[in-house]
Every structure is written in structure tokens, then in C-alpha cells.
Specification:
Pfam family, one: Rhodanese
Strand content: 5-15%
Number of domains: 2
Keywords: Membrane, Transmembrane, Transmembrane helix
Radius of gyration: 29 Å
Oligomer: single chain
Organism: Anaeromyxobacter oryzae
Helix content: 40-55%
Largest sheet: 5 strands, parallel
Mean pLDDT: 85
Number of helices: 18
Protein name: Rhodanese domain-containing protein
Order of helices and strands: HHHEHHHHEHHHHHEHEHEHHEHEHEE
Number of strands: 9
Strand order of the largest sheet: 3-7-6-4-5
Shape: elongated
């Protein structure tokens, strides 16, 4: 949302993330993270610098990211979050922890040590690279476990069932409590002070001031809350808004049909109509969703987690309701999202049901259905599946005295018409840009 558009492979991209990487490495070195003795002391409760530095980075970044999202400077949906594989993640964390204790480094700190020509850092880094190679060569033997307990993009606010800004406040409070406990542990195990002589409060006024600033900033974020869909739409880039004016986000039904035939593309049709109209007729395989429920985080998160080869189509009786939902979902970052041009009314014009099943009424007002059905058909009519070979004839099951072939079709049946359309669907992919100590 902010005026920072960095494209992978460009000079600006390389310089920006190169500077961040060098800065991160410099901070680790200045914090003493290139020394195995300092890192290993963490596990003996003598020196808690690792916990304090890392958690300080976590909570400061959390407050800044949540603040940028609240002010509309950052689109959180475009921030890469590693997918959660619960049990493999737990096992991997334990393996890395054991390696950390034995070797004295994590992968990131070994790079810092190696860059300052420390021999133990170089040896550890070579061992880490060999471990990566060994993992790549053997992962197929335990791939079912490696890909098990998949939870997608799963964050603390989802786990706790609270707004993101509330989750940030809780993380800040937990970190400050850990800092306080770490100070006590350092003084007892690191400096040998008896528990009776240790004051139960930090000695530094600067630490108290820093903690107060973080808590105050978190409280402001909680009060302000995350932006509403209408606010997010106001901050949406101009090219996205322009696609409404030039109607490039509206897709002709014939293009939907063509994509449903394409084995390289997965299509999802979300029907935003009420249950009555949905039961009368809907596109084959469509899923009915309530427009308001669709905008809940747990609902649109599913759309954010879809594979890059998935295209989602929103459909109503007309276009109004689907367009409103499209704007709200695009504002939270849902990619490969389109609206079916003309809705179900236009679909039935191109792929009609028999006259004895439904007849066209007067032009529908707003998003009303422009057809009167004799009975509910759901997606059982061939016009719901025009991409299937078995539906390419016009069945007239309710007609009397009509000559039929052995397959139950009209004799002399004709295939669905082939309609010309301008291709609007363009698949967008997301690239993962990741980093960190591990």
C-alpha cells in the first residue's frame, strides 16, 4: 500500500534486502552472537542475551507491522507467513535445539561467526549445509510425516481467536514478563546472587521506559483496530480500482467454461445468492456463501491460502453483490479473483434450461433472478455443466411426445454454442521472501 514496490531481481530489491541482511548480521555480531560461549550460556540460564535480543526484535517488529497495517501502509495479506506443519515443526524445532546446544550456533549465527573468520563458525556452517543436502536426499523416505498436520497460514490471532492487534498486545506483555524473569535468572545463575538478595523489579529506568512505550503503542493499536474493508478499498492500488472501470475483472461465462476444462487450472465458483435462488439453479459445483460471512478473517483466509493455480469466481443473479464482495476481498489481498459477467441471469441466457423448466420474466431489478423456475434444479441441468461432454445436448426430459435417442437426448441434438470472448483471467503468483536466524 505504501509507495514501496520492489520487484524480485531488480537492483532496488537486491540493495534493500542486502542492506537489511547486513544490518541484521551486524546487530547479531554486536550482540555477541558470534561467540558460542555466549549463545550456549542461554541454556544454562547464565546469560539470557539470546532471549532478550530476539524477543526485542520480535515485539518491536510486531508493533511496527501491526501499526503499518492499521494505518494502511502495509497489506498484511502480502506478507509471507510460513505455512504451519504442526508435528514436523515440533520435531524440527527439537532437532535444531539439540544442534544449537551441541554446536553453539543456529544457522544464522554460524554465518555471522564465519563472516568474522571464526573457525568453529565455519565448521558449523559447513555442517549445516551438509545437513541441508542430506535432508534433501532423504526427505522422500519420510515425506508423509514431513507434509502431515498441515494448517496453512496459521497465526497467533487465529489460534487465540482475537483481533491481530490484541494478539500483538499479548505478545508484548508475555515478552516483558520473560525479560523480567530473565533478569532474575541471570543475576542468580550468572552472577551468583542469592534469591533473597534479588530485587523483584528491573533496576534500569531506561528498560522501564522502553517497556512503557511498547505497551502504550500496543494499547493504541488495540483501540484503533484494523481497517475496515471499505477503508482497505480506499487504500487499494489504482491499477486494481481501474480494473473495475475497464471491467477487466468481469469474466464472460464462456471463459469460465473454458477454464473449467483446463486441467492446469483449478476453478472455484462462490455463489453469493440466498438459499432459495441457489436451489433453483446454480453453476455446477458452486459453493453457496453468505457475503457477510465471506468477509470474516477465518473465511477469506481460505482464499488467501489457495494454490496459485486456483481461480475464484464470484457470482450473483446480477453483478452488484458479487462486485461488492470482490472489492472487499481484493482489499484484503485475495488474488486470482473475478466476477462472472452478468451473473446467473447472463449464464442462463447463454446456456439456457428448457422452457418447461424455467421461463424468462421481465428484466430483473437489481440482483433479482430473471427466471421463473417450475421446480428446483440445483446443478442437475446440463446448462450447469456446459464444459462436460455428457451435457452438450439439450435434454428435454419434461417435454411430451419428443423423439429421443437411446441416451435420452433430443434426436438431432445440437451442442452448446461456442461464444467468442476476450480473455481476462491472468494468474498471479506469490513469491516467498523469507529470512531470520534459523
Amino acid at each position: 500500500m505504501a509507495p514501496f514496490h520492489l520487484t524480485a531481481g531488480t537492483l532496488g530489491y537486491a540493495l534493500t534486502f542486502g542492506a537489511i541482511g547486513f544490518g541484521f548480521g551486524a546487530v547479531l555480531e554486536m550482540g555477541g552472537f558470534g561467540d558460542t560461549r555466549k549463545l550456549a550460556a542461554q541454556f544454562y540460564l547464565r546469560d539470557m542475551t539470546v532471549l532478550k535480543v530476539m524477543f526485542t526484535g520480535i515485539i518491536v517488529a510486531a508493533v511496527l507491522i501491526a501499526g503499518a497495517s492499521t494505518l494502511g501502509l502495509l497489506d498484511m495479506s502480502r506478507v509471507w507467513v510460513n505455512p504451519t506443519y504442526l508435528w514436523p515443526g515440533i520435531v524440527g524445532g527439537l532437532v535444531m535445539g539439540v544442534g544449537f546446544i551441541i554446536g553453539g550456533f543456529c544457522p544464522g549465527t554460524s554465518v555471522v561467526a564465519a563472516s568474522t573468520l571464526k573457525i568453529d563458525g565455519m565448521v558449523f556452517l559447513l555442517g549445516a549445509l551438509f545437513g541441508v543436502y542430506l535432508f534433501g536426499e532423504t526427505v522422500s523416505s519420510f515425506e508423509p510425516f514431513f507434509l502431515s498436520s498441515y494448517m496453512g497460514r496459521f497465526t497467533l490471532d487465529q489460534w487465540l481467536g482475537v483481533p491481530m492487534n490484541v494478539a500483538v498486545l499479548l505478545v508484548v506483555a508475555a515478552a516483558l514478563l520473560l525479560f523480567w524473569g530473565a533478569e532474575l535468572l541471570e543475576r542468580h545463575f550468572g552472577r551468583g546472587e542469592p534469591w533473597s538478595a534479588i530485587a523483584a523489579r528491573p533496576r534500569s529506568a531506561g528498560k522501564l521506559a522502553g517497556a512503557a512505550v511498547l505497551v502504550a503503542a500496543s494499547l493504541v493499536l488495540v483501540v484503533r483496530g484494523q481497517p475496515t474493508p471499505s477503508q482497505r478499498w480506499a487504500w487499494t492500488p489504482a491499477d486494481v480500482k481501474r480494473s473495475v472501470d475497464d471491467r477487466s475483472m468481469f469474466v464472460h461465462p464462456a471463459e469460465v467454461v473454458a477454464l473449467r476444462k483446463d486441467i492446469n487450472v483449478a476453478t472455484v465458483v462462490l455463489d453469493l445468492r440466498d438459499e432459495h435462488d441457489f436451489n433453483l439453479f446454480h453453476v455446477g459445483g458452486a459453493r453457496r456463501v453468505d457475503p457477510e460471512a465471506l468477509l470474516r478473517p477465518e473465511q477469506y483466509q481460505r482464499l488467501l491460502d489457495q494454490p496459485a493455480s486456483t481461480v475464484t469466481f464470484l457470482v450473483g443473479n446480477g453483478e452488484a453483490a458479487a462486485l461488492d464482495a470482490w472489492k472487499a476481498l481484493k482489499a484484503v489481498g485475495v488474488a486470482n479473483l473475478y466476477v462472472v459477467e452478468g451473473g446467473v441471469n447472463h449464464w442462463l441466457e447463454l446456456y439456457p434450461v428448457p422452457d418447461c423448466v424455467a421461463e424468462r420474466t421481465a428484466p430483473a431489478a437489481g440482483d433479482a433472478l430473471a427466471y421463473r423456475f417450475a421446480y428446483a434444479t440445483g446443478d442437475t441441468e446440463p446448462s450447469a455443466w456446459p464444459e462436460l461432454e455428457s451435457s452438450r445436448g439439450f435434454r428435454r426430459a419434461c417435454d411430451a411426445g419428443v423423439s429421443r435417442g437411446e441416451d435420452g437426448h433430443h434426436s438431432g441434438e445440437s451442442a452448446w454454442p461456442v461464444y467468442a470472448f476476450t480473455k481476462h483471467v491472468k494468474l498471479q503468483t506469490k513469491a516467498a521472501v523469507k529470512g531470520g536466524c534459523g
